[in-house]
Amino acid sequence: GRPILVACPLVPAEIPGYLLHELRPTVGDLDALERWIAASDLPFHLEIDTGMARAGFRWYDEEALAAVAALTAPARGWEGVFTHFHSADHDATATDTQWNRFTHVLSSLPRRPPVVHAANSAAALHGRRYAADVVRPGIFLYGGRAGQGREPEVVVKLQAPVVALRDVRPGDTVSYGATWRAGAAGTVATLGVGYADGVPRSLSGRTDVDLGGTRVPVVGRVTMDLTMVAVAEGAVRLGDVATVYGGLVSLDEQAQAAGTIPYELLTALGGRVSRRYRHSL
Predict the structure, then answer these.
(1) pLDDT score of 20 more than 80
(2) Is the N or C terminus of the chain more exposed, i.e. has fewer CB atoms within 10 Å?
(3) To 5 degrees, how large is the angle CA 258–CA 263–CA 265?
């Protein structure tokens, strides 16, 4: 099969599992590096921390980097080295600074490994400046924006059926806390999706969904299993499918309305949401 790089830091206790499944670890501290090299000649990647302060060898820690150089010089499994940009979507100066730190560390290592990588989605969209040998696109692959550049195609849609319809009178309230009250007679459609499925409660009363090619507002609080929307009388039937994002309302727009980022919406999708994969040529 194709090689799999585990981008989270290697925990030495997990080395047997990596060896069993032939996974490539990310190594970012001396103890893990020593123990991996002692255990195996299989490929590994070094992570260099150039400003993210999340994991990896610090770019300015000359003592640790000297030890890394000594350990990796004879290591047959040393396949790659990388860093991660923290602001490539909006701060070109900071990204250049991180890149320069990274290339400085590369020059101090005993050799250039076969695979050098740094560019996330936003950096990859800047052309070849940060491309190195491979790129690591993230959110752009799933239809989220990566800075102010190229607009992504729709990749993910979150959809749910209408499971109930009811007429409301002026003054009728909807959902917990009675936070929404009908100003006039109308219709409320209940969607079979809620915060247990990945529709944040923070979207309550703050956004629209796409239902029948029309933007309709979410009314009242999003509940665990259900979400209510106001629709035109007679415009919707039971079983009609609403698109929470990926239709008239984009993934990015919905994330902004929720006060978060597209990554969080996508990773919040619950286990009971059916995944349907479609391929097009």
Answers:
(1) yes
(2) C
(3) 45
d(CA 113, CA 149): 31
Supply the pLDDT for residue 74.
Answer: 95
Q: Please say if the pLDDT value at position 181 is more than 70.
A: yes
SS (HEC) of 81-96: EECCCCCCCCCHHHHH
pLDDT at 281: 52
pLDDT band at 149 (very low <50, low <70, confident <90, very high): confident
Chain-centre distance of CA 279, in angstroms? 21
pTM of the complete model: 0.91
Q: 87-96, 148-157, 236-245: which has the minimum mean pLDDT?
A: 148-157
Cα four-point dihedral sign 122, 126, 131, 135: positive
Token couple for 177: 């806390």
CA distance linking residue 143 with residue 137, whole number of Å: 11
Closest CA to 231 of 215, 220, 245, 250: 215
Distance, CA of 252 to CA of 258 (rounded, Å): 10
Contact 162, 190 (CB under 8 A): yes
Contact between 116 and 82 (Cβ < 8 Å): yes
Beta strand 241-245 with 180-181 is: unpaired
Q: Please give the single-letter amino acid code of residue 275.
A: R
- Amino acid sitting at position 46: L
